[in-house]
Amino acid sequence: MHRRSALIFGTACLATPHLARAQAGTIRLIVPFAPGGASDTTARIIQPGFAAAMGRTVVIENRAGASGSIGTLQVVRATPDGSVIGISNTSPHGIVPLASNPAPYDGDRDFTHIAMVADTPTVMLLPGNSPLNSFEELMQAARTRPNGVTYGSSGVAGMQHLQGEMMARLSGLRFIHVPYRGTGPGLQATIAGEVDCFLTPMAGTTGAIEARQVKPIAISTPDPFAPLPGVPTYVQLGLPQLTVSSWTGISGPRGMPAGLVGEMHAAMQRVLADADTGRRLVAAGLYPLTRPYSSADYQQIHADFARVWGPVVREARISLD
Asked: 321 in a domain, yes or no?
């Protein structure tokens, strides 16, 4: 072998372990929805700080479809070594596993729930050019139109889909569900006037609200919501059953080592303690937790959700078809 060839071969051999270690050090953060929605917004805000705190590259991958279950299933099937984790939230981890033809995973038992990041209320939006201007006017339209009114959501089996079904049952009026592939596409469709209203997590909508492309007419917080002065709560509108928020966090596959879970949880707490990150989350409609949540707390939230909301999902006969 020529000396130069030997040198190149030797250099390649030396480089290979370093390349393998660099690849092993990458964390794939699966977002189970399209870009532009609450989950995607959360991921992009926490990504830089989480990568710095972990000392590893964090790559965001959007894997939308089937109400978030396609991307979430990728997390379930991953090796539990921390190389693949995902954004977890109320829809794919809470409601989808309870649907009449659920995804092939259990929202509690098939995951290692690492850290809760924030929660966000549901806001009801009208298109900016809608002739309607209030919740009362929307309800009146539902009463007088032969086919009722349409409401969009980020997908079948989401919390907002469930809220729309409950709203129809409580009011006795017809609300026709129009699912979209995430908050981003649904918001754009609402701006274009494709639906009469849109039920969506507050996260990811603040820009459109400020630009008056959409009109907020109801919020799911128990008390008046300071970022939306004058917008009534469902309690004030006589529908307290619709008072609920959507939680968001990070989760991995079942069986992750406790030490790794502790490392990732501690890294996320450092991210959430950063003032700039907190401001960015609030600006996006994601609100800080009222107290620190441990990994065990976040795991319990998933278990409690199945217990409390299971009967509601079954009564509404929500299906992924």
From this structure: no
